[in-house]
Amino acid sequence: MSEHDDPIFQAEQAHLSELYAQLLKIRDDISQDLETNHAGAKQDLIDMSEEVRLDFGGADETIETLAAIETLNSIIDAYNQYHDFNVDKLRRVMLLLMQPYFAKVTLEMRPGRPPRDVYIGAAGMTDERSRPLVVDWRSPVAETYYNQEMGPTSYQVDGKTRTVNLKLRRQFDIVRDQLNMYFDTTIAIQDSLLLSALKKHHTEKLQAITATIQREQNEVVRHADVPVLLVNGIAGSGKTSVLLQRIAYLLYQERKTLDPSQVWLFTPNDVFESYIDTVLPSMGESNPQTVTWRAFVSEQGAGERDLGLSTSPETLRRMDEAARELVLESEDLREVKFAGETLLKASQVASAVEKFSEFDVGPRFTALVKEELHSRLNRRLGQIARNDELQEEMLSLDVERQYEIFGETLAPDNDDETAAYARRYVDYLYAGTHDEIERLVWLRFDRIGMRLLGQSALSAVEWLYLRLIFTGIGSRDARFVMVDEVQDYTEAQLMVLARYFSRAHFLLLGDEHQAIYEGTATFAQIADIFRATHGSVDECRLLTSYRSSPEITALFTGLLDKREQLRLTSVQRAGVEPVVRSFDEKDAYLAALREAVAEGGEGLTAIVAESDARVSWLSKQLGDAAQVVRGDKNLPAEGVVLLPLRVAKGLEFDHVIVPDAQAEVYPDTPLSRRRLYTAISRAMHRVTVLAQGPLTPLLAAR
Ligand SMILES: Nc1ncnc2c1ncn2[C@@H]1O[C@H](COP(=O)(O)OP(=O)(O)OP(=O)(O)O)[C@@H](O)[C@H]1O
């Protein structure tokens, strides 16, 4: 039946057209509203600012001027609030105008009642009578779509379970007001929209998967808020995608209280960071604070040290124990300076520390010493304020500067008033000194740590951990911390993160088979670390590969234990058999490599080399045929790139060439196995594995 004769198609197209017209009207109403108000606002502001004269001539004029400025500011604020409300609605309409919705569920809310159609889209929108036109994919009722259960099903609202009857689950391929296709799901697992989404080729940037989130993925996206959620998922199972959908979900769920700046996302490298940076904005949400471990360490002020990737958890535990017995020595302390001027001498710091020597080193001790130092600093600032020269300097400040510092002009009537102003002046000048005390500049962590551990230097991890022993916590603001590729972190790194963000909830995602560095934490160790700091750890598994064709999935899962292989599946349609070849002669090898590169195929081809050294060698052989990517921010959309495994991780390509699959580079060791699994699993549609010399035993036994 062609779509012209299909009454369902026509009815759905008619519904879409009508809804689209409503969306357009909402858009036009808002923009007109904004324009009118904005223009009006502009006139108001012009009028107001003409009335306000900046007159600081005398005390009375100053008060008047300040009052007028305050009124002006509050009017601007009022407009801003109004503006924001509309801007948010406008943003949602704009999102929906690209695709008003992607699915509909028909639900019988109570037995015997007429069923209700619910259209689900990237954002929610209601009509002028507050009836829903489209519901947000994150709203409770939309869960019935993601559960993929026909008939009796349920969803959670405010912690309560609501049982409903799902009569129909319909998916749409829609662009703007045009319906291209619809699919009715009759059996639970079939997902036509997913299959059509997976046919696509590599895109420069990762895409949101809102319309096709699968059931096992939805369990992570909509998971109850728990202290720690640890997700173990095979290559291409959508961990990164799920992570970003989860952030969008949390930002929606907690939109009244959660700001994106309270969400941290740890990523493996800068290329990856740029690969994912449009996903949340495309869903109408802002990106969280995204950092790599390296960036985190350097923001903490530990950047110049060794990153600490070889620091063992025992070292940190030893530090914890030794700290209990620690008695600070005067050499462990440092003076407090500001802009080159010493404000508290080392001896004063030492006596503040001495005052609390009966306390063990730890958060309580640190808080008490800080308090003492702040009050000593205040006394010292009081002394400075009494200085005649300083008072003269203050009185000769020009009016603008006086206004900036005091919010008023200086007109002291007597010495006491002058002294009071001088104190405020000093507080203003030296405000940063209190921050220095808070930053614990008065503690020489390197010296203390070296003494505790009997070492001649501290790694970044040791330094950060020691500071946490003193402070107890690093960030009080962070509410959610997401760590992607968690299998690449060492126990010691995770101990730092768990403690630094001790108040935050964690989402940790990784694949134990993709641990490409020696000495990183196992999933059991990860769970232990977070159980110790956060009480409990919930775990989820993702067992289906969405990235790679079944042939490619079979090649990389073939590297795993037989029992594990049985549990894993791929949903991609059948594709091209992988090519695996080895060559004795260098020339024949290079000819095959050049041929594979030249063939390329549609989209982006990546030559994923095992190490940076191999990238250099291959780049010499291939010349301009492949663009080297080592840590730049962006990947091209097509062509051929040559990159080391450490940069390729987390990314995906249409065609992957593994150019160094010789036994010498990938011997039969657990680490090599995981590295090869990671390299091959970057491929979506094609894989070419080439070896110069005998093929790695990991693949030879296939
Ligand atoms: N539910 C889905 N619908 C459509 N596409 C999906 C879905 N889940 C995953 N994908 C696609 O599969 C690919 C792999 O997803 P993603 O990179 O999130 O997986 P990953 O588990 O983080 O992979 P890896 O661990 O191998 O780096 C992406 O192209 C993603 O868009």
TrEMBL record:
Query: Which InterPro entries did the record assign?
Result: DNA_helicase_UvrD/REP, P-loop_NTPase, UvrD-like_ATP-bd, UvrD-like_helicase_C
> Which UniProt keywords are listed?
ATP-binding, Helicase, Hydrolase, Nucleotide-binding
* Stretches of the chain forming a coiled coil according to its record: none
**Pfam annotation, one family:** UvrD-helicase
On the tree of life, the source organism's domain of life is Bacteria
Q: Does the keyword Zinc-finger apply?
A: no
Keyword S-adenosyl-L-methionine in record:
no
Query: Where in this chain does the record put each UvrD-like helicase ATP-binding domain?
Result: 212-549
User: What is the protein named?
Assistant: AAA family ATPase
Q: Tell me the residue numbers annotated for binding ATP.
A: G233, I234, A235, G236, S237, G238, K239, T240
